[in-house]
What does this fold into?
Amino acid sequence: MLGLLIFGAFQAYNFLTTTERLAVRTVELRGLSRVDTAEVERLVADIRGENILLVPLEKYTERFSGHPRIRSAGLKKILPNKVLCTVEEREPIALVYAEGFYEVDEEGMVLPSDELTDYMDLPIITGLNRKSVKEGTYCKDPQLANALRVLGICKRYGGSFANDISELRIGGNGVSVVSLKEGMVLLLGESEFENRLKKFFLIRSTIAKKEESSKLIDLRFEDQIVLRSAI
It folds into this structure.
């Protein structure tokens, strides 16, 4: 009896793993915007024809980790013969200017440029060394990390101010935030970004009522804010 059960199980396994009815015929791609569809199709091309029960999804998911514009990808088997591939693309949050414009996401990944890069309406980060900016890699310059952190804090606490940031300058004074719309430059230094920006957001409306159209606001001091009328 036991032998019959084992034989039956073997026969069932053999049928399920070899039948053409369970061979993958369709790979559906979702979530693509700026990533070339053809590039993604090449990453999963050899799934087609594999038995859906035996497809090693981890193997194919790992392939996506090497694509600089893809943050993550998830693959799902849909019986009898379909695999759904959902891609999450990296979103640029700023442009780095270093002898040309480069998109960068919140993690510091420098994204490959395309025909849209020069037309992106994003804050521009200036002052980085060109050698530290390479497409398809993470920029490990701590100054970029500081600039991205400042931008994130402005988005979290600054409301509409974050949308009006024109430039984040990196230099001897640390990070400076430029808003051409509001006619302001914020000097933030090299640390305590969250506390300094929160202090600015508390007095922002008061500063905006002043007559001067251009203002330089020095937030680097612990117990005072220095306001000048010229940038």
Notes: Residues 142-157 form the longest helix (16 residues).
